[in-house]
Design brief:
By secondary structure, this protein is of the alpha/beta class. The chain has one domain: Ribonuclease Z/Hydroxyacylglutathione hydrolase-like (Metallo-beta-lactamase, Chain A, 4-Layer Sandwich). Helix content is 23%, strand content 26%. The chain has six helices and eleven strands. The strands form two sheets. The protein has a six-stranded mixed sheet. It is globular and about 50 Å long. One of its GO terms (biological process) is hydrogen sulfide metabolic process. This is Glyoxylase-like metal-dependent hydrolase (Beta-lactamase superfamily II). GO terms for molecular function: sulfur dioxygenase activity.
Length: 211
């Protein structure tokens, strides 16, 4: 197996490359359009076929040309608003499971940061995008659906085994990886808070400026 993390210092965005080197297939999670040349070179270096392009969420309305740049990588793009080709490809997967080589990724519905957020479970690793960021996304200072975010985090992510590794999509002045036990106990928004306390704090966050 091959696993790489790419971190953009300026925006805090984190992307991930997972690959089965023996089978020559890979997936990308939350790649940035600006990194397409680098990502293409990485795939070529290891002679990898990009099987899936997975997005936990997107802010394409604020990033002109982002989706088109990613489509240049030539793989089905899986996200909450699926283009027709990707929707057909995703329909081939049983029970929300996508395969690459001898590996598989489970697609999970985890709305909250945006209305249609997805998370991806691979082995003992959950790639959950902006779910744990709450107020750290540079494109969206406030969760789109706070009630759904609470449910996704507390009633889904935090119910998983304590040792499950959590990989974020935003790591600005914070860690890119933690685990369920740690976040249950010490997350600054969810750890030790009640649902009402969480929602009250979110209401104090600024609204996103119109695009």
């Amino acid at each position: 197996m091959y696993f790489r993390l790419l971190h953009d210092e300026r925006s805090g965005a984190v992307s991930y490359l997972l690959a089965d080197l023996d089978a020559g297939e890979a997936v990308l999670i939350d790649p940035r359009g600006a990194d397409v040349p680098l990502l293409g070179a990485m795939l070529d270096e290891h002679q990898l076929r990009l099987r899936w392009l997975l997005r936990t969420h997107e802010h394409d309305a604020l990033l002109t040309g982002e989706a088109a740049a990613l489509d240049a990588l030539g793989a089905p793009r899986i996200q909450h608003h699926l283009p027709a080709a990707a929707a057909a490809a995703a329909g081939e997967a049983e029970h929300g499971v996508l395969t690459f080589g001898n590996e598989h990724v489970q697609v999970l519905q985890t709305p909250g940061h945006t209305a249609g957020c997805l998370s991806y479970l691979w082995r003992d690793r959950l790639f959950c995008g902006g779910l744990l960021a709450v107020d750290a996304c540079p494109f969206q200072p406030r969760p789109a659906l706070p009630e759904a975010l609470w449910d996704s985090v507390v009633n889904d992510v935090f119910k998983r085994p304590a040792e499950t590794l959590l990989f974020t999509g935003h790591a600005q002045r914070s860690r890119a990886v933690s685990n369920v036990l740690e976040q249950r106990r010490w997350h600054p928004w969810f750890g030790g808070a009640t649902r009402d306390e969480f929602l009250a704090r979110v209401r104090e966050l600024p609204l996103a400026e119109p695009a």
